[in-house]
Write a structure and sequence with these properties.
It is a single chain. By secondary structure, this protein is an alpha/beta fold. The chain has helices spanning 7-16, 28-40, 51-57, 60-74, 90-99, 113-129, 157-167, 191-201, 215-223, 233-249, 260-278, and strands at residues 20-24, 45-49, 80-87, 103-106, 133-138, 142-143, 171-174, 179-180, 205-207, 226-231. It starts with 6 loop residues before the first helix and ends in a 6-residue tail after the last helix. The model has no long low-confidence stretch (mean pLDDT 96). The structure holds 1,3-dihydroxyacetonephosphate.
Length: 284
Protein backbone atom coordinates (compact mmCIF):
# COMPACT_ATOMS: atom_id res chain seq x y z
CA UNK A 1 0.00 0.00 0.00
CA UNK A 2 1.46 3.37 -0.92
CA UNK A 3 1.83 6.44 1.21
CA UNK A 4 -1.65 7.98 1.69
CA UNK A 5 -3.19 11.11 3.17
CA UNK A 6 -5.35 10.91 6.32
CA UNK A 7 -8.75 11.68 4.78
CA UNK A 8 -10.10 8.21 4.00
CA UNK A 9 -7.91 6.60 6.70
CA UNK A 10 -9.54 8.62 9.50
CA UNK A 11 -13.06 8.55 8.07
CA UNK A 12 -12.87 4.75 8.02
CA UNK A 13 -11.52 4.70 11.58
CA UNK A 14 -14.34 6.93 12.78
CA UNK A 15 -16.97 4.84 10.96
CA UNK A 16 -15.63 1.59 12.38
CA UNK A 17 -14.94 2.88 15.91
CA UNK A 18 -11.17 2.81 16.30
CA UNK A 19 -8.33 5.35 16.22
CA UNK A 20 -5.14 5.40 14.16
CA UNK A 21 -1.97 6.06 16.20
CA UNK A 22 0.24 9.00 15.30
CA UNK A 23 3.69 8.18 16.63
CA UNK A 24 6.30 10.93 16.74
CA UNK A 25 9.76 9.74 15.71
CA UNK A 26 13.14 11.04 16.88
CA UNK A 27 15.58 8.88 14.92
CA UNK A 28 15.88 6.06 12.40
CA UNK A 29 15.70 3.30 15.02
CA UNK A 30 12.39 4.80 16.17
CA UNK A 31 11.01 4.68 12.65
CA UNK A 32 11.96 1.01 12.24
CA UNK A 33 10.28 0.19 15.55
CA UNK A 34 7.04 1.96 14.62
CA UNK A 35 6.75 0.75 11.03
CA UNK A 36 7.79 -2.85 11.83
CA UNK A 37 5.19 -3.05 14.59
CA UNK A 38 2.42 -1.53 12.50
CA UNK A 39 3.26 -3.91 9.64
CA UNK A 40 3.34 -6.95 11.96
CA UNK A 41 -0.05 -6.02 13.43
CA UNK A 42 -1.48 -4.86 10.09
CA UNK A 43 -2.36 -1.42 11.45
CA UNK A 44 -2.53 1.80 9.49
CA UNK A 45 0.02 4.24 10.91
CA UNK A 46 0.74 7.96 10.94
CA UNK A 47 4.38 8.97 11.35
CA UNK A 48 4.58 12.42 12.96
CA UNK A 49 7.41 14.92 13.06
CA UNK A 50 7.00 18.36 14.60
CA UNK A 51 9.20 21.18 13.22
CA UNK A 52 11.87 20.67 15.91
CA UNK A 53 12.02 16.95 15.06
CA UNK A 54 12.25 17.71 11.34
CA UNK A 55 15.23 19.97 12.09
CA UNK A 56 16.90 17.35 14.32
CA UNK A 57 16.50 14.68 11.69
CA UNK A 58 18.06 16.86 8.98
CA UNK A 59 15.12 18.53 7.23
CA UNK A 60 11.89 17.80 5.35
CA UNK A 61 13.52 15.83 2.52
CA UNK A 62 15.43 13.67 4.99
CA UNK A 63 12.20 12.80 6.81
CA UNK A 64 10.36 11.92 3.60
CA UNK A 65 13.33 10.05 2.11
CA UNK A 66 13.82 8.04 5.29
CA UNK A 67 10.18 6.96 5.58
CA UNK A 68 9.49 6.29 1.90
CA UNK A 69 12.87 4.58 1.56
CA UNK A 70 12.26 2.27 4.50
CA UNK A 71 8.77 1.41 3.26
CA UNK A 72 10.22 0.49 -0.12
CA UNK A 73 13.24 -1.42 1.17
CA UNK A 74 11.22 -3.43 3.68
CA UNK A 75 8.23 -3.91 1.34
CA UNK A 76 5.66 -2.68 3.88
CA UNK A 77 2.10 -3.19 2.71
CA UNK A 78 0.27 -1.11 5.33
CA UNK A 79 -1.05 2.39 4.55
CA UNK A 80 1.21 5.01 6.12
CA UNK A 81 0.97 8.79 6.40
CA UNK A 82 3.90 11.21 6.64
CA UNK A 83 2.42 14.00 8.75
CA UNK A 84 3.79 17.38 9.78
CA UNK A 85 2.84 17.68 13.44
CA UNK A 86 2.23 21.24 14.76
CA UNK A 87 3.14 23.04 11.55
CA UNK A 88 3.60 26.61 12.76
CA UNK A 89 3.07 28.60 9.55
CA UNK A 90 1.63 28.48 6.04
CA UNK A 91 5.16 28.48 4.65
CA UNK A 92 6.19 25.50 6.81
CA UNK A 93 3.14 23.51 5.64
CA UNK A 94 3.80 24.34 1.98
CA UNK A 95 7.45 23.29 2.35
CA UNK A 96 6.36 19.97 3.87
CA UNK A 97 3.86 19.32 1.09
CA UNK A 98 6.44 20.21 -1.58
CA UNK A 99 8.95 17.85 0.07
CA UNK A 100 6.52 14.89 -0.02
CA UNK A 101 4.64 14.88 3.28
CA UNK A 102 1.16 13.44 2.71
CA UNK A 103 -0.52 15.37 5.53
CA UNK A 104 -0.01 18.55 7.56
CA UNK A 105 -1.26 20.09 10.77
CA UNK A 106 -1.50 23.86 10.79
CA UNK A 107 -1.33 24.84 14.43
CA UNK A 108 -2.27 28.50 14.50
CA UNK A 109 -4.22 28.02 17.71
CA UNK A 110 -2.31 30.73 19.55
CA UNK A 111 -3.56 33.34 17.04
CA UNK A 112 -6.94 35.05 17.37
CA UNK A 113 -9.73 32.91 15.85
CA UNK A 114 -10.09 34.99 12.67
CA UNK A 115 -6.37 34.61 11.94
CA UNK A 116 -6.37 30.91 12.81
CA UNK A 117 -9.24 30.39 10.36
CA UNK A 118 -7.61 32.54 7.66
CA UNK A 119 -4.26 30.72 7.70
CA UNK A 120 -5.93 27.29 7.99
CA UNK A 121 -8.09 28.11 4.96
CA UNK A 122 -4.99 29.05 2.98
CA UNK A 123 -3.23 25.81 3.96
CA UNK A 124 -6.33 23.75 3.05
CA UNK A 125 -6.47 25.36 -0.41
CA UNK A 126 -2.83 24.51 -1.13
CA UNK A 127 -3.01 21.06 0.46
CA UNK A 128 -6.21 19.91 -1.22
CA UNK A 129 -4.89 21.02 -4.61
CA UNK A 130 -2.07 18.52 -3.94
CA UNK A 131 -4.27 15.73 -2.46
CA UNK A 132 -2.88 16.32 1.03
CA UNK A 133 -4.91 16.25 4.27
CA UNK A 134 -5.01 19.04 6.86
CA UNK A 135 -5.55 19.05 10.64
CA UNK A 136 -6.26 22.24 12.60
CA UNK A 137 -6.44 23.06 16.31
CA UNK A 138 -8.87 25.08 18.43
CA UNK A 139 -8.01 25.85 22.06
CA UNK A 140 -4.59 24.88 23.42
CA UNK A 141 -3.18 21.47 24.15
CA UNK A 142 -1.09 22.08 27.26
CA UNK A 143 2.49 21.10 27.91
CA UNK A 144 5.99 21.32 26.53
CA UNK A 145 8.07 21.03 23.40
CA UNK A 146 5.50 20.18 20.76
CA UNK A 147 3.89 23.59 20.77
CA UNK A 148 6.07 25.84 22.86
CA UNK A 149 4.76 25.26 26.39
CA UNK A 150 1.17 26.46 26.25
CA UNK A 151 -1.33 26.52 29.09
CA UNK A 152 -4.41 24.31 28.60
CA UNK A 153 -7.24 26.25 26.98
CA UNK A 154 -10.49 24.34 26.38
CA UNK A 155 -11.81 24.53 22.83
CA UNK A 156 -14.94 26.60 22.36
CA UNK A 157 -17.82 24.75 20.64
CA UNK A 158 -18.82 27.60 18.31
CA UNK A 159 -15.22 28.21 17.30
CA UNK A 160 -14.82 24.53 16.35
CA UNK A 161 -17.97 24.66 14.22
CA UNK A 162 -16.80 27.82 12.48
CA UNK A 163 -13.29 26.45 11.88
CA UNK A 164 -14.61 23.34 10.13
CA UNK A 165 -17.35 25.10 8.17
CA UNK A 166 -15.20 27.97 6.95
CA UNK A 167 -11.97 26.09 6.15
CA UNK A 168 -12.97 22.61 4.92
CA UNK A 169 -10.28 21.10 7.14
CA UNK A 170 -10.18 17.26 7.23
CA UNK A 171 -9.81 16.63 10.96
CA UNK A 172 -9.80 18.77 14.06
CA UNK A 173 -7.99 18.89 17.40
CA UNK A 174 -10.40 20.44 19.87
CA UNK A 175 -8.11 20.89 22.87
CA UNK A 176 -10.16 19.54 25.78
CA UNK A 177 -7.72 19.24 28.65
CA UNK A 178 -5.02 17.01 27.15
CA UNK A 179 -1.35 17.81 27.67
CA UNK A 180 1.90 17.03 25.84
CA UNK A 181 4.29 15.25 28.19
CA UNK A 182 3.41 14.11 31.70
CA UNK A 183 0.04 14.80 33.36
CA UNK A 184 -0.03 16.23 36.84
CA UNK A 185 -2.51 13.79 38.36
CA UNK A 186 -5.39 12.21 36.46
CA UNK A 187 -6.18 13.80 33.05
CA UNK A 188 -9.46 15.74 33.04
CA UNK A 189 -10.78 15.54 29.52
CA UNK A 190 -13.98 17.25 28.41
CA UNK A 191 -15.93 14.21 27.21
CA UNK A 192 -19.30 15.96 26.91
CA UNK A 193 -17.74 18.74 24.87
CA UNK A 194 -15.97 16.17 22.71
CA UNK A 195 -19.23 14.41 21.91
CA UNK A 196 -21.03 17.66 21.14
CA UNK A 197 -18.23 18.94 18.90
CA UNK A 198 -17.93 15.61 17.10
CA UNK A 199 -21.65 15.49 16.36
CA UNK A 200 -21.67 19.08 15.15
CA UNK A 201 -18.59 19.02 12.91
CA UNK A 202 -18.91 15.41 11.68
CA UNK A 203 -15.22 15.18 10.71
CA UNK A 204 -12.83 12.92 12.71
CA UNK A 205 -11.39 14.43 15.90
CA UNK A 206 -7.76 14.22 17.04
CA UNK A 207 -6.40 13.75 20.56
CA UNK A 208 -2.94 15.16 21.28
CA UNK A 209 -1.03 14.25 24.43
CA UNK A 210 -1.97 10.56 24.16
CA UNK A 211 0.71 9.43 26.64
CA UNK A 212 -0.39 8.73 30.20
CA UNK A 213 -4.15 8.77 29.60
CA UNK A 214 -5.86 5.80 31.31
CA UNK A 215 -7.17 3.15 28.89
CA UNK A 216 -10.78 3.73 29.90
CA UNK A 217 -10.53 7.42 28.99
CA UNK A 218 -8.93 6.57 25.64
CA UNK A 219 -11.89 4.29 24.86
CA UNK A 220 -14.30 7.08 25.78
CA UNK A 221 -12.50 9.44 23.38
CA UNK A 222 -12.79 6.92 20.54
CA UNK A 223 -16.51 6.43 21.30
CA UNK A 224 -16.88 10.23 21.00
CA UNK A 225 -15.47 10.52 17.49
CA UNK A 226 -11.70 10.64 18.10
CA UNK A 227 -10.04 8.81 15.21
CA UNK A 228 -6.37 9.83 15.59
CA UNK A 229 -4.36 9.78 18.82
CA UNK A 230 -0.84 11.22 19.09
CA UNK A 231 1.79 9.53 21.23
CA UNK A 232 5.38 10.57 21.93
CA UNK A 233 6.32 10.76 25.61
CA UNK A 234 5.68 7.12 26.50
CA UNK A 235 8.02 6.00 23.73
CA UNK A 236 10.68 8.51 24.71
CA UNK A 237 10.60 7.33 28.31
CA UNK A 238 10.58 3.60 27.51
CA UNK A 239 13.43 3.99 25.01
CA UNK A 240 15.65 5.84 27.45
CA UNK A 241 14.93 3.51 30.36
CA UNK A 242 15.94 0.55 28.19
CA UNK A 243 18.99 2.38 26.84
CA UNK A 244 20.23 3.22 30.34
CA UNK A 245 19.79 -0.42 31.37
CA UNK A 246 21.75 -1.66 28.37
CA UNK A 247 24.57 0.83 28.94
CA UNK A 248 24.72 0.03 32.64
CA UNK A 249 24.81 -3.71 31.97
CA UNK A 250 27.80 -3.38 29.65
CA UNK A 251 29.61 -0.08 30.25
CA UNK A 252 32.36 -0.90 27.73
CA UNK A 253 29.99 -1.70 24.88
CA UNK A 254 30.59 0.39 21.75
CA UNK A 255 28.26 -1.54 19.42
CA UNK A 256 25.16 0.52 18.52
CA UNK A 257 23.34 -2.68 17.59
CA UNK A 258 23.50 -3.62 21.27
CA UNK A 259 22.57 -0.18 22.58
CA UNK A 260 20.49 2.31 20.54
CA UNK A 261 19.20 -0.27 18.06
CA UNK A 262 18.43 -2.78 20.76
CA UNK A 263 16.60 -0.15 22.84
CA UNK A 264 14.07 0.23 20.03
CA UNK A 265 12.42 -2.98 21.30
CA UNK A 266 10.99 -0.87 24.13
CA UNK A 267 9.30 1.38 21.56
CA UNK A 268 7.89 -1.65 19.77
CA UNK A 269 6.20 -2.75 22.99
CA UNK A 270 4.58 0.66 23.53
CA UNK A 271 3.44 0.94 19.92
CA UNK A 272 1.96 -2.56 20.05
CA UNK A 273 0.03 -1.69 23.22
CA UNK A 274 -1.35 1.48 21.58
CA UNK A 275 -2.42 -0.33 18.42
CA UNK A 276 -4.28 -2.89 20.54
CA UNK A 277 -5.85 -0.24 22.78
CA UNK A 278 -6.86 2.04 19.90
CA UNK A 279 -8.35 -0.93 18.00
CA UNK A 280 -6.39 -0.36 14.77
CA UNK A 281 -4.98 -3.92 14.56
CA UNK A 282 -5.92 -5.62 11.28
CA UNK A 283 -7.44 -2.38 9.93
CA UNK A 284 -4.71 -1.84 7.31
P1 LIG B 1 2.62 13.03 24.26
O1 LIG B 1 4.08 13.34 24.20
O2 LIG B 1 1.99 13.52 25.49
O3 LIG B 1 2.33 11.61 23.97
O4 LIG B 1 1.92 13.90 23.08
C1 LIG B 1 2.37 13.76 21.76
C2 LIG B 1 1.64 14.68 20.84
O5 LIG B 1 0.50 15.02 21.05
C3 LIG B 1 2.37 15.17 19.66
O6 LIG B 1 1.63 16.07 18.91
Amino acid sequence: MPKVNMIEMLQKAKREGYAVPLINIDNLEWLHAVMDTAQRLQSPIIIGTAPFQVEELGGMHTVVGMIDGLAKDKGYTIPYVIHLDHGDSYERCVAAIDAGFSSVMIDASSLPLEENIAVTKKVVAYAHAHNISVEAEIGHVGGDEFNGGKEVLYADFDECVRMVKETGVDCLTPALGSVHGDYKGEPKLGFDEMKAISEAVQIPLVLHGGSGIPDEQIRKCIERGTAKINVATENRRAYHIRLRELLAADPNCIDPMKTTWSARRAIEQIVESKILLFGSKNKA
